[in-house]
Design brief:
The protein has 1 helix and 22 strands. It is mainly β. It is globular and about 70 Å long.
């Protein structure tokens, strides 16, 4: 059972859009009770190389009941049956596949389904890996977007299911992790700039790629991560075009291998984008085109120590706060944390 509540007795002037302002206090609550029974038959084992069973399978059925109570008056009950199955195995030596599927029968999400397939190939003496993943399915938006009732906010929409297709290709080779993916969605549903549900019935496309690599030169370790993504049209869904992370540290083993120490610095960066704003009365994010987040590096300094079974870390997080301006706000109206000193100890006691 889960529940959420929100109460704002004296909201600050200008915090809420004008169409949500009222002269009375706001109190909205939602309670969701979820029951689920699952029956599975399987020979699956945690064997990543598939040596124990060259062909592994699992299939079963989930029986789900959800009861939604809003303001103790409005009730919705959904009952659905979800058959599912999975099959994975070896095509030939070092060549593997995995396929899975489910379909939802009955309830609000009746007719939803997902088909997933994976193919991966190991090669070389070091077991380098190439893989291909494809997903196809139909998925209703969260019930929240179709029906919502509260003191000041309510809507009733007939949004249909969203159709999605995703393809992903990657390779892990000589320390490089390279990945590219393509996703398209029709009937995408989101909260618009008026904080109201809206659907985009044309095709929404997301193309993304990332690369990462760890470089080691004697005692120096450098880890690089970079990602790029493009959304079409970007008026519906906003994402940063570029994300990067760089870590540089000095790694040493001292005192006859009794101490393993690392000292270094790391930085994270996002290019500028219109990050969705947050509406606390709904606990949801919505589109906005007024404030641009990003174009600011978050820098951390750290020391990691490993002494036998004890691990110690010391971190000065976001040490550049205030040194490069104060534009470190990702979600409009919610600044990121200032500089902070943190430390921790993990000590395993055993013989």
């Amino acid at each position: 059972m889960t529940g959420t509540s929100y109460e704002d007795l004296n909201p600050p002037t200008g915090f809420y859009p004008a169409y949500f302002i009222d002269t009375v206090a706001v109190f909205d609550s939602t309670r969701l009770t979820h029951f689920e029974n699952c029956f599975v038959y399987s020979n699956e084992v945690p064997d990543t190389l598939g040596k124990s069973f060259p062909l592994q399978y699992s299939f079963g059925i989930r029986l789900q009941t959800d009861r939604l109570v809003r303001d103790t008056t409005f009730k919705d009950v959904f009952r659905q049956t979800v058959p599912f199955g999975m099959l994975k195995g070896i095509i030939r030596q070092k060549t593997f596949f995995k396929a899975s599927a489910y379909i939802v029968l009955g309830g609000y999400k009746g007719g939803d389904y997902s088909l997933d397939g994976s193919f991966y190939q190991y090669f070389g003496k070091h077991n380098y890996k190439g893989y291909l993943n494809v997903s196809k399915g139909l998925m209703h938006p969260d019930y929240f977007f179709n029906s919502y009732i509260s003191d000041n906010i309510h809507w009733d929409n007939p949004f249909g299911a969203q159709n999605f297709l995703k393809g992903e290709f990657g390779i892990i080779l000589r320390g490089f992790d390279l990945n590219a993916s393509y996703t398209h969605i029709t009937n995408y549903v989101y909260l618009n700039q008026q904080v109201l549900p809206q659907h985009y019935n044309d095709l929404l496309r997301v193309i993304s790629a990332h690369a990462s690599k760890e470089f080691r030169i004697k005692h120096w370790i450098t880890t690089v991560y970079a990602a790029a993504q493009q959304v079409t049209p970007d008026s519906i869904l906003k994402l940063p075009a570029f994300i990067g992370k760089l870590t540089l540290c000095y790694d040493a083993v001292l005192f006859q291998k009794a101490l393993h120490a690392q000292i270094g610095i790391s930085g994270t960066y996002h290019s500028k984008w219109y990050q969705d704003a947050y509406m606390p009365a709904l606990a949801f994010f919505y589109r906005q085109d007024n404030y641009q987040s990003g174009n600011y590096p978050f820098l951390d300094a750290f020391i990691n120590l490993n002494i036998k079974r004890a691990r110690i870390f010391i971190k000065y997080e976001h040490f550049n706060a205030g040194l490069m301006g104060y534009n470190y706000i990702l979600v409009p109206g919610y600044p990121q944390a200032d500089a902070a000193f943190k430390f921790g100890i993990s000590w395993l006691f055993f013989d």
